[in-house]
Amino acid sequence: MNASTHAPVYWDPYHPDIWKDPYPTFRRLREESPLYYNEEHGFYALSRFEDVKSGLLDSATFSSARGTILEIIKANAELPASLFIFQDPPVHTAYRRLLQRIITPKRMNALEQQIRDLCAQSMDPHVGTGRFDFITNLGAEMPMRVIGMLLGIPEKDQQAVREFSDNALRAESGKPIEYDPANLSGAGMAAFDEYIEWRTRNPSDDIMTELIHANFTDPNGTVRKLDHDEIIAIVNMVAGAGNETTNRLIGWTGKILAEHPDQRRDLARNPRLIPQAIEELLRYESPGAVAGRVSTRDTEFYGRRIPAGSIMMLVFGSANRDDRRFQDGDRFNIHREPRPHLAFGNGVHVCIGAALARLEGRVALEEVLKRFPDWEVDYDKTEMSATTTVRGWDSLPVFTSSARKTHSLVTAPVVAATLETTQTVSIEGTWNLTVKGPTGPMPTELIIERNGDTLTGLQSGQGMSEPISDLKFDGKNLSWINHVKKPVKLKLECSGLIEGNAISGKMKAGFMGSYPFTGTKAP
Question: What is 68-116 written as a DSSP string?
Fold first, then answer.
């Protein structure tokens, strides 16, 4: 054991060496100092999963009303009410409710083919060149085009909007962000004025038009339209958030799957594993590693008093690797048992664009694997982002084996997946399923046992387990019924197609409709 392990654990979000690979420090925080205090920068930090989750759920104690970024909190600035991610209920609730009417999971899922087309536009020019950059050629292009299309920002101006949003979060290495209120309100982005004026005169099927014309019940209970400044702030917030998270997710997808080629090949052979791979990527390398809050009252953790008015940093990046929640949390494993993570937060501030980010991440990986099933990172030319709010890459170039013809790349995963169907299937055991529900992915565990010629089973999820009935398997198709008693009585009729150790199908949830699911059999 070297001398450094005996020194007290130290975490500084501005320290470039720690920020480059924070996970050894995060592990020490969880084990040695689950309530950490940084005297130099004046903040407390929680790093264990249950502590971070409880902090997110208790918005009455841990307030977002002074912002969620350390520099903004310390600036003690008055933030526009319409920046609802930096507000508490009821202000937060009023604006979020409006945006939830506009940014619905159904509306996001309807974009899948357009997202796929945008991925093709970004990647096809690089097929056969032997090189590809996950950020420059995809992460910096596709998400901004998608959010630009949703907002109604002309394509010619999307790059300027992206650069404006990126620069608002930039910092010199090892230093805090230089806080500028104009970067939050959108006041520094004069082009938004022109977009709003244009859309007022020329309405279209986009979010900006809906924001202009929507009736809105404000925090005072008055039904009215959003004013000009409110629209600018919301558009600026959506543009920045819609670009940032997916850009980071795409970059980490390239790096982590390059470091785990066996799992990458599993995904190429069986694309049905991709949704759960995206969840594992979000857990393993959460784009937003930390979020700040301010305590509204005296509270206590681990026998220590935290005074009212203290800054509390909730470390998502640490919580999502906590071994208490995720077995062997520092190991990347797309086949692990699905469990909800905190990459998109939790509670009233859970990310409103999570469904879109998941969709973009899944489609991007599907399209990458069709064109570039193998790659290696060119580490000499990678460039990490200079920001303390989200960890990620400005450039992640890779070497590809893209000399193959495009059509053979597209068909290779299909052929491999077809070969899997010829394998002998042993139905007994544990199947880890992910249901694509109305509020996002929902993990559930299906355990099947054989008693003579009879199959029996148990299904677990959300802390409850229920015996299943009418379990049938004909060597290819599996079906069962689950009578759920909580939170409401519901009959779940499930059926799926088994292909090797993978299953895909639908779950009919009574009056609530049908939802697709995918899953794999645990080793």
Answer: SSHHHHHHTPPPPTT-GGG--TTHHHHHHHHHHHHS-HHHHHTTHHHHH
The pair of structure tokens assigned to 292 is: 């700040």
Place of tokens 């088994």: 498
Cα-trace Rg, the chain = 24
Q: Are 195 and 153 in contact (CB under 8 A)?
A: yes
Which residue, among 329, 344, 144, has the nearest Cα to 242 in the 3D structure? 144
> Scanning the structure block, which residue is given the tokens 């083919």?
113
Q: Which of 140, 163, 71 is nearest to 392 (CA)?
A: 140
Q: Are 209 and 196 in contact (CB under 8 A)?
A: no
Residue 375 near residue 398 (C-beta atoms within 8 A): yes
Q: What is the pLDDT of residues 91-105, one digit of tens each?
A: 999 999 999 988 887
d(CA 143, CA 224): 32
Separation between Cα atoms, residue 441 and residue 122, nearest integer Å: 27
What does pTM read for this prediction? 0.73
Kindly give the interhelix angle for 354-371 and 406-420, rounded to the nearest 10 degrees. Answer: 100
For 45-104, how does the pLDDT look when each residue is reduced to its tens digit (9 = 90+)?
999 999 999 999 999 999 999 999 998 899 888 888 999 999 999 999 999 999 998 888
Q: Specify burial of residue 6 (Cβ count, 10 A radius: 0-12, 13-18, 19+).
A: exposed
d(CA 276, CA 280): 6
Q: Exposure pattern of 424-443 as b/e (b: 16+ CB <10 Å)?
A: ebebeeebbbbbbeeebbbb
Cβ-defined contacts of 22-26 (< 8 Å, 24+): 22/289, 22/317, 22/318, 22/391, 23/317, 23/318, 23/321, 23/330, 26/315, 26/317, 26/318, 26/321
Q: How far apart are the first and last CA of the chain?
A: 35
What is the token pair recorded at 16?
A: 């470039």
**What distance in Å separates the CA atoms of residue 121 and residue 146, rounded to the nearest whole number?**
12
CB burial string 388-400: b at 16+ within 10 A, e below: bbbbbbbbbbbeb
Residue 469 backbone phi and psi in degrees, to 5: -135, 170
Give me the pLDDT at residue 421, please: 33
- Rounded Cα distance, 486 and 95, in Å: 31
Residue 358 CA to residue 518 CA, distance in Å, equals: 15
What is the rounded distance in angstroms from the CA atom of residue 374 to the CA atom of residue 179? 41
**Strand 375-377 vs strand 383-384: parallel, antiparallel, or unpaired?**
unpaired
CB atoms inside a 10 Å sphere around CB 212: 18
Q: How far apart are CA 310 and CA 44, in angstroms?
A: 7
